[in-house]
Amino acid sequence: MGSEQAALLPLLYESEDRYGWSVGMRAITHALFKRIPLPDGPILELGCGGGAFLRELKQRQNGRQLVGADLHPAALVNARRRLGISNSLVDANMLALPFPAAAFGAVVALDSFDQQGVKLSLALAESHRVLRPDGLLLLRVSAYEWLHSTHDRAFNTGRRYSSKEVQSVLVQHGFQPVAATYANAMMLLPVAFVRLLQRYHFVPFTAAQYSASQFDELVKAILLMEAHWIAHWNIPFGISLYVAAQKVVAAQKV
Fold it and tell me: Based on CB atoms within 10 Å of each CB, which residue in 51, 74, 136, 162 is the most buried?
């Protein structure tokens, strides 16, 4: 990975408050919670990044215990800056969480289960362990493996998924999917066109693509519109995929 690409994740953590994609995708996540209420109990965000989503959850889930976990030092530095010392932030691997079983009412994993070095089945097994009976897992992953490109390597994305694939693995690991929707649908065609050109080296990859203010505002406006739609309905295609699933507890034999 070149130095330009290596700088993108820390830049993303620093700019979560204003970066159009981050603002818009958080709005979509909150819109989903209008349809899928969070169960009682503490909430764990895996891959909490710079803490912007946790801060918004704190404002919307008044009084509820929130815990953020991440491995990237720059993520935790920015999260502590946003959240202060009163919030629980943990340097932790999502494949070996330092929490007891059934500790959380909900686990939120936004663009963390698709990262390089993360095996989806192991991440789901560990999330299942720390969830309470009937607890909720909300995950977001990058969609469509055929879209994998330089962009994914720059943001440490190791794998892209289809809705069918994710839901199948969820069921295998003791979850019952309750909702699934793609997101960032309106940008699918132009993004796919650019990333395929980058894959075959017709268009160079540059970090400047992510800082153009006019493009950034356009992305935010599009995602905010999608958030209004997703508050009520699913979208059948898009660059990102959300799946919400409930922990199923096997009946004990008498």
Answer: 51
